[in-house]
Amino acid sequence: MWSDRCVGQNNNWKMVALIQHLVVNNYFTTVEQKFMTTGHSFLPCDREFALIERKKKAAMVYVPHQWVEVIVNAATKFEVMLMATEDIKDLSIVERSLNKGDFRITQYVWLKIMHDDPTTLQARTSHNILQQWTSHCIAKKMKGRSKLNLPPVKVAQFPRLY
């Protein structure tokens, strides 16, 4: 997946926790996250946000539900999925289980976690496929355990964020 470099949204340990959760729970066998080069980023979603922004200028939005109409009317391809508070989960438990060590996510432009070894975060500092991966063990060392057990966790088991 391609992401912009926004630390608050994409380029952070919460995303690594989410990616690891998706791999461990067999949603994917491998997840790679690539970050756009600062100043050169233009993702397809940027164009779609511009369509919504254009519609927003003519709209009178007073309550959150009115955004549905603005978004749906911005382009025929837009679908809105309404979410309830219980749909938004807190992944802090997964994030706290990660060994962050001195690994600085923002120094890398390509991250990868694979099902074969979901406790290793692989990273590259460039988009060059010839560059060697840097490996970082994201499993916290636990006393008395020789092997990390990552039991599958159902999304419903995560606490609500709000």
TrEMBL record:
<protein>
    <recommendedName>
        <fullName>DUF7869 domain-containing protein</fullName>
    </recommendedName>
</protein>
<dbReference type="Pfam" id="PF25273">
    <property type="entry name" value="DUF7869"/>
</dbReference>
<feature type="domain" description="DUF7869">
    <location>
        <begin position="4"/>
        <end position="76"/>
    </location>
</feature>
<dbReference type="InterPro" id="IPR057191">
    <property type="entry name" value="DUF7869"/>
</dbReference>
